[in-house]
């Protein structure tokens, strides 16, 4: 890099003036410019540096410090999961509406170590906000605390970190609402009697462990003639969910219902039931996308898909992220206005999207996500 390219280089990098990369780049440029100081003069040297650091074109969108466009870094648990692809669609819409820059990255498969690595990269880049769906709440919290210490705003969505590692959790629904809703639907389909099994993404996923806790609490308090026979992880993969469901049907022939609590597991469980020729005999319910389960619902293999509008979850997360920067989302608030979603409830440090929705054969064709 030569002194004559300083301004062009910094503009092309689009570095945040307070970021670590900006500081390192400026130091190297000062070293390169020292030979010019005597023949050119101190005023010319300062002029070059000012042109490099301040001559960047101004963005017309939402801005943070010094007129810089706000950058929101959104992390899914796994970026190939259709659930998070749908979240990103809503996030993209909010980013366009608000004029913020959206970065979207995450592991290919659920991987807490990879999530931490990506957060470290975002800290180095000096993004304005990190919004993470946490695979391992304890493991990711250290990295998120580091981001907060560097002045980056932090919130979580879908699956929470430890509370001290972020400012707010954008919660798709309360864990109790999800757990009770799933258990009540299973009980309705089995007439409150019989055995069922759960397929989850992993045994460490914080949100799913919370849902399971409330499923089991509802079971114990309200449905004495029902029994949870098995819990199996599928690593958030449809094919593994299918193989785990097949294994459950073999090992527990008395099971009458499969409850899948991650989106790839619902069609995976349905395919296992279909291949076993047990459609209608073994019922399938779960948390998933209408688009992934429509054919199984219409064929009578899957009875109910319970979810929230995932595009709205992504949309709300980006709105909340921008509001952390501009100061309109503050601790102690009890409600929050989020664009087209209107006024939403805040419980403590949880921004609530709303109640879960039940998709079934009567309404599933009305939804295309």
Describe this entry's structure for a reader.
There is one protein chain. The protein is an alpha/beta fold. The chain has 3 domains: 52 residues; 152 residues, Rossmann fold (3-Layer(aba) Sandwich), CATH 3.40.50; 133 residues, Response regulator (Rossmann fold, 3-Layer(aba) Sandwich). It has 12 helices and 14 strands. An 8-stranded mixed sheet has the order 2-1-3-4-5-13-12-11, sandwiched between helices. Strand 11 and strand 12 form a beta hairpin.
Number of β-strand runs: 14
Unreliable segments of 5+ consecutive residues: 1-18, 22-60
What is the topology, as strand order, of the major beta sheet? 2-1-3-4-5-13-12-11
Number of domains: 3
Number of helices: 12
Structural category: alpha/beta
Kindly provide the name of the CATH class of the largest domain. Answer: Alpha Beta
The third-level CATH topology of the largest domain is Rossmann fold
The biggest sheet, with number of strands, parallel, antiparallel or mixed sense and barrel status, is: 8 strands, mixed
Task: Tell me the helix content.
Answer: 40-55%
**Alpha-carbon distance between the two ends:** 48 Å
* Gyration radius, rounded: 25 Å
Question: CATH superfamily assignment of the largest domain?
Answer: Response regulator
Tell me the fraction of residues in β-strands, as a range: 15-25%
The SSE string, one letter per element, is HHHEHEHEHEEHEHEHEHEHEHEEEE
């Amino acid at each position: 890099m030569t002194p004559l390219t300083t301004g062009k280089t910094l503009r092309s990098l689009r570095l945040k003036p307070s970021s670590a990369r900006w500081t390192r780049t400026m130091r190297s440029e000062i070293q390169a410019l020292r030979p010019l100081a005597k023949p050119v003069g101190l005023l010319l040297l300062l002029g070059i540096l000012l042109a490099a650091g301040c001559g960047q074109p101004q963005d017309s969108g939402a801005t943070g410090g010094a007129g810089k466009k706000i950058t929101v870094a959104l992390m899914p648990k796994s970026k190939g999961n259709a659930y998070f692809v749908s979240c990103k669609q809503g996030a993209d819409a909010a980013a366009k509406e608000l004029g913020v820059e959206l970065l979207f990255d995450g592991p290919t498969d659920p991987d807490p170590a990879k999530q931490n690595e990506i957060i470290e990269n975002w800290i180095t880049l000096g993004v304005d906000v990190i919004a993470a769906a946490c695979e391992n709440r304890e493991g990711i919290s250290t990295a998120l605390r580091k981001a907060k210490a560097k002045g980056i705003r932090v919130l979580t969505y879908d699956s929470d970190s430890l509370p001290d590692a972020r400012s707010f959790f954008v919660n798709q629904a309360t864990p109790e609402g999800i757990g009770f809703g799933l258990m009540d639907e299973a009980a309705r389909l089995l007439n409150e009697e019989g055995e069922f099994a759960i397929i989850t993404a992993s045994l460490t996923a914080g949100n799913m462990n919370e849902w399971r806790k409330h499923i089991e609490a509802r079971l114990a308090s309200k449905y004495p003639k029902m029994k949870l026979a098995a819990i199996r992880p599928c690593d958030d993969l449809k094919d593994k969910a299918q193989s785990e469901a097949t294994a459950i049907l073999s090992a527990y022939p008395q099971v009458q219902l499969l409850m899948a609590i991650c989106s790839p597991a619902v069609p995976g469980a349905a395919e296992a039931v279909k291949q076993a020729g047990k459609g209608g005999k073994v019922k399938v319910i779960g948390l998933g996308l209408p688009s992934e389960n429509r054919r199984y619902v219409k064929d009578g293999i899957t009875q109910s898909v319970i979810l929230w509008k995932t595009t709205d979850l992504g949309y709300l997360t980006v709105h909340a992220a921008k509001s952390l920067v501009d100061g309109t989302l503050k601790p102690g608030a009890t409600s929050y206005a989020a664009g087209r979603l209107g006024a939403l409830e805040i419980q403590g440090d949880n921004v609530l999207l709303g109640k879960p929705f039940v998709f079934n054969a009567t309404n599933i064709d009305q939804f295309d996500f």
